[in-house]
């Protein structure tokens, strides 16, 4: 069932629905299980973990082979850090895990047309899976979205609507459009979160059944953070692991509502004023699932950090020079590790994992502008 | 050993070498075997197939988790076609399979500095693996190379050298630079080809041990085509499959030296004059391994097709609208399938596979220019 964390109402999942009648977001209680180890039959996609999705037997997976991404070790802030290369999902971002499950459910519901709003990655992902499912799709993005993401969305055949103003203006425009179609939002859909749990499953699988001690993750709307937390708790309940990793959530100093709420010990996340940041993917001034995000951070004995623009760009460069080419948003989380080390949070024998969320090729325009036209580091000929 | 197909000399692989003393390219006879099914121990990388690489036991893999890419089915020219999504390799192109093995060998040799020339994808791939191996790297590209690829190469920390003029001018510049360092060229290295064989292994693995009847592949320098052919022959010898698939090699009409040579029944591939093409990755006027390419096509009872610019762009769009977002070069091969159908080459029950080589995000600049500024199809708002 769908379950409302605010007014506590419950709804059957047999009917399409994206929020509660009281306008709160919904949680999913999908009677999922994690009894068996994943089968080897379909080795390459999140659908190995299907029994944990709690979908009906009749739902036919809309899949592009998302998941099963590499886990490699790189040196960050003097420590060996496990890097989950989730930017190698089919559309170049981790969102594909969520989109695959969400679009599968929408198709089962018989939805023929959807809208979503996005800073870019979720929009590209939803557009791709909608295309695979034959669902018509309109995606609202802010005009500031990287050219790479905008072109990608349009190429998948989605109607791309560029909205001037803030990310929040974009959300409002999408919500208005959703009044006469279905709002298939990664920020609202409980099924999207279900797909995100597979990141946690895979990390444990790749560590031979052991959970890391820490997971450092960017947080914007919270789908990755909540997916990780839910996934690790599934495994704890199933007896696969003995502890849930501590979650270090990272935001840009330019847009840090979760950090503010956590610091003030609030139960929900009030909206903040925000500035422009290289971490466009997590610049969410008022996350829908703020309450759940704070619960997950606290439930994992976690922490919240903020990182400056310079640190984000430097980490983007540093990861690339270690062969991992990601967009700036993905560099925010590893950029916080040096502070965690300085604060004495990480014990010498503790294993730290990060999830690298978006491929660098999505942000060519911004990367070129920053590194090759501002002359800060430009020892190479500018790439155009 | 290294083996020269021209003067027949043989060289030990214990010493670094990239061509024969007679200036021909070299073939590899690496005493490889394919006796066992791949182990499940390292499920996600080409190094599952290590025993078929013929490397010494001491060589330590330089790997980013390349390979293990999805295989999905899409409708192309009215047929169900198996699409190997090799653009989901770590740097966004299939070249990573070759780079992983080549750079591993260079590291074993103790090479500290390399040069390569590339239209972009191989350069990005070699730069990434060199970064992972701690090898200094200089990459020569034509000035016409997509901005996405150029930025990526520079971000990996390679010295990016942009050469005005043709792809061949770029090659000459790299060869000149190679006189005082090592020429780590995907177009010359037999170890690079060894890595490419894994595409064939994986396709057969994903088809439960059966080879497809046809593989339609773009051909420029020939590393993919030769890797496929060698890989399928390995499996034939090992008794895993009963037939090598027929290879349909595809070139742009603007640069079709292999097609010309094949049509004239030549044994080697003379250089041709060429024009600008959207398929920048296969615009090679004089492929180094022309002789081997023709042998492989004929050995597989294959054919060669050329495709027009319009067909390449239309297929780029059509694949994206079916959720597969690739660069135009990758669309050249599927664009030939309609001609193969029209020519009656494909029987109704024959299985056709294609390898999609490069991610669309590499070519954002060219895709935006073509689809959104020329107004040909632009029913969406332009992405920037």
For the report, how would you describe the main beta sheet of chain A?
6 strands, mixed
Number of DSSP E strands of chain A: 13
Give the end-to-end Cα distance of chain A, rounded to a whole number of Å: 52 Å
Which residue ranges of chain A are poorly predicted, with pLDDT under 50 across at least 5 consecutive positions?
A: 375-384
Helix segment tally of chain A: 12
Approximate shape of chain A:
globular
Most extensive interface, chain pair and sizes: A-B, 59 and 59 residues
List the strand order in the largest sheet of chain A: 4-5-13-10-11-12
Question: What percentage of amino acids of chain A are in beta strands?
Answer: 15-25%
Radius of gyration of chain A: 19 Å
What is the percent of helical residues of chain A? 25-40%
**Oligomeric state of the chains in view:** homodimer
Q: Briefly note the structural class of the backbone of chain A.
A: alpha/beta
The helix/strand series of chain A, from N terminus to C terminus, equals EEEEEHEHEHEHEHEHEHHEHHHEH
Task: State mean pLDDT of chain A (0 to 100 scale).
Answer: 92
